[in-house]
Amino acid sequence: MADKKTISPAELKRRLDEMKVEFLFDLRNEDEFKAWRIEGREDFPVLNIPQIDFVGEEDRYIDQFPKDKEINAVCAHGDSSRYSAELLTEKGFNAVSLEDGMDLWSEYYEIHKVSDSPLIYQMYRTARGCMSHIVVSGGEVFVIDPNRHVEKIIGFANSIGAKITHVIDSHLHADHISGGIDLAQKTGAQYFMNPIDADGATFTFVELRDGIEIKISDNNFFAIQTPGHTPGITSLLLNGKYLFTGDTIMKTDMGRPDLGGKAEEWAGMLYNTLFKKLKSLGDDIIILPSHADSIKEQDKSGIVSLTLGESRRKSKLFSLTDYKEFINYIISSLPENPESYQEMRKANLGLISPDEAKKKELEIGKNLCVMKKPEQA
Ligand SMILES: [Fe+2]
To answer: Do 73 and 28 touch, CB atoms closer than 8 A?
Structure first.
């Protein structure tokens, strides 16, 4: 239970949403801090002093802390930040500590209702920008790209009195450990994946092939293979209105096509997807992606979505209709490809079985699934 000098992840998120975080004090080491940190809808001052340097030497750094702002202290597990917040409080500062640190923050989720009919919820893993979608119809639940903390999805389904019957991974994820197989096994749901991405997998699955239709109650999902981010990535068109794109199209950009080590080939696939495969879909299609780059993409209701028309108008890649220009832009824009991503691909194929500590370690860091503009790369 959080005391008054400790704030929960939910409270921190509320403050971030209300732009009330005034000052962040991060006590993790420099590498961890550079890899990922808490970001808001607006930027705020951030001070990184590793705990090993700060504790016992507080007075050396004291001038760097504001007297007139609340200091939000954070560390990896919550101990150093609580101790340091107490130290700062004793010295007359207003400081609070994030409960259980980045450990708990990385497991914080929020669920927002996207639509009443069909009934769609978006589940947002705040720290990593991963989103799962939950569609409910006739007491059945269809889950797209479930996160690995599957008890949260099962708990939600139970809370609305519905049964999870269909679980889909839109593609072979590289940036996080999927909960797909685990969720299907725990609930008895059918598990779907495109066979190209599931090549070599140790588990059984229902083939999510281009053009198949899946009906639950009066809702119809139409599978559209949209290669690029991966060769087998498959979007789902719900009732001709909502398009669950996985990482093909995201709010600010597209999913990067190089995580399999074949950037040029997969970039070519993405070109065909954007300009040929999706050509017949109207601008009013509502896209629900599986990743966001930051909480800045959430609207006031907490939902991350856009229309296909918005993407066509605003996305750099949609403006590059010349094939060569499109490929060259991608090749010059690729961010780093972390080693951990290859391990997570293996874990998501069932080829390795990391324990909980290893899963946490693999998932450390900012989500790098999205393309970056050349100036950011
Ligand atoms: Fe992905």
So the answer is: no
Give the domains, in start order, of the chain with CATH numbers: 6-104 (3.40.250.10), 108-339 (3.60.15.10)
Q: Separation of 339 CA from ligand 1 center, angstroms?
A: 15
User: Cα(197) to centroid of ligand 1, in Å?
Assistant: 11
- Residue 117 CB contacts under 8 Å (≥ 6 apart), including other chains: none
* Ligand 1 centroid – CA 171 distance (Å): 7
CA dist 149 and 286 (Å) reads: 27
CA of 123 from ligand 1 middle (Å) equals 16
Distance (angstroms) between ligand 1 centre and the Cα of 173 equals: 5
Phi, psi of 237 (to 5 degrees): -100, 115
Query: Do residues 114 and 303 make contact, with C-beta atoms less than 8 angstroms apart?
Result: yes
Q: Which of 7, 38, 49, 75 is catalytic?
A: 75
pLDDT one digit per residue (tens) for the chain, 377 residues: 445 689 999 999 999 999 999 999 999 999 989 888 999 999 999 999 999 999 999 999 999 999 999 999 999 999 999 999 999 999 999 999 999 999 999 999 999 999 999 999 999 999 989 999 999 999 999 999 999 999 999 999 999 999 999 999 999 999 899 999 999 999 999 999 999 999 999 999 999 999 999 999 889 999 999 999 999 999 999 999 999 999 999 998 899 998 888 899 999 999 999 999 999 999 999 999 999 988 999 999 999 999 999 999 999 999 999 999 999 999 988 877 778 888 999 999 999 999 999 998 888 777 777 776 544 43
Ligand 1 ion: Cβ-proximal residues, 5 Å cutoff? 173, 247, 369
Residue 75 is a catalytic residue: yes
